[in-house]
Amino acid sequence: MNRQVCVNAVWRKSSRSNGSSNCVEVAGLRSGIGIRDSKASAELVLILGLDHWRTFITAVKAGEHDLS
Predict the structure, then answer these.
(1) What domain range is 14 assigned to?
(2) Cα 68 from Cα 50, distance rounded (Å)
């Protein structure tokens, strides 16, 4: 993906991060959902297609991942 697309994306953190720098950020991109480490925002971006993003979010809400 073009680096400029990721730079110009609108990234957001969870409201539950409480201003912490130890979290992930997400952004809607043309090719799917971008996910990056907030501490290393200039580094690699993981991009999930919308179907994979929905599957992931559904699993998180169902408690299938230990997020502690």
Answers:
(1) 3-61
(2) 25
**Per-residue pLDDT reduced to its tens digit, 21-66:** 678 899 999 889 999 888 877 778 889 999 999 999 999 889 898 7
- Report yes or no on 37 lying in a domain: yes
The tokens describing 25, both together, are: 């950020």
CA distance 60 to 44: 23
Q: What is the pTM of this model?
A: 0.74
